[in-house]
Amino acid sequence: MPDNIVNIDFRRHFHLRPGERVLDLGCGNGRHTLEAARFPVRVVGLDFSREDLNAAKFMLADLKRKGEAPGQVDFIVGDAQHLPFRDGAFDKSLCTEVFEHIPDDRAGIAEFERVTKPGAPVAVSVPNYWPETVFWTLSWGYWHTPGGHVRRYRPGEMWRILEAQNIDVHFQRNRHSFQAVYWFLRCLFGKDNENFPPVRAFFKFINWHHARRIRLLERIEATANLVIGKDMILYGRKRGAPGGAASRNGHVMAPARASEG
């Protein structure tokens, strides 16, 4: 899918303030890291795939050349289940389309919560259950691809998991129903048959749609999101009083230094 499609709304629901330290856990090729870098913040993108991080660095360099990324970015190779950061290292944390991939999602969520400051905003997205179930039903290859999805989250399940992990969820929204249609076509005609004419045509339509932002189409997609939005995004806040990065033994700890990308 187009690299500029992001799940987290940085302008309305997940505001970034100058100087904040932001974690993008499981950043992949960096679409959310790069979007955050458009703000004057320090953002750390961590992922298990060095290849994806190299692609993200290439795109970051392009944004820097254009003067569109005032933020400072560090890319780190790491495991979401064992993060190399101290407790409360980040002012805001986000994680998009990751927990459905990793073997121990509870360990990943616990680490995500641990490295976030008390009282700090968080955002998490995972695939929406009903479209995901359709894809799993249509295509064996969709959910047996190495590194692919190993679980589905039923309605309300991720909300309850985050609440149990010291995160108060404020609201949830679904997005990207047009992407759900695209993946329906991919699964219907063969997951790896992405150049099949109807699939390719819809891919081009989505690119055109995101470039043009036709108001009528945005309203149609927003309505369809209520039923078939591909991604389920939850916004919340880690419990605790905002302030210092308190560790579990009660002492204030500075963030671990991220290695430069």
Structure description:
The protein is an alpha/beta fold and about 260 residues long. The protein has a domain at about 20-130 and about 150-175 and about 230-240: Rossmann fold. It is built from 8 helices and 7 strands, in the order E-H-E-H-E-E-H-E-H-H-E-H-H-H-E. The protein has helices at about 30-35, 50-65, 105-115, 130-140, 155-165, 175-190, 195-210, 215-230, and strands spanning about 20-25, 40-45, 70-75, 90-95, 120-125, 165-175, 230-240. Strands 3-2-1-4-5-7-6 form a 7-stranded mixed β-sheet, sandwiched between helices. It starts with 20 loop residues before the first strand and ends in a 23-residue tail after the last strand.
Helix content: 25-40%
Query: Briefly, what CATH class of the domain at 21-129 and 150-175 and 231-238?
Result: Alpha Beta
Number of helices: 8
CA-based gyration radius: 18 Å
Q: Kindly report the CATH topology of the domain at 21-129 and 150-175 and 231-238.
A: Rossmann fold
Indicate the proportion of strand residues: 15-25%
Uncertain runs with pLDDT below 50, 5 residues or more? Answer: 245-261
What's the N-to-C terminus distance? 25 Å
Number of strands: 7
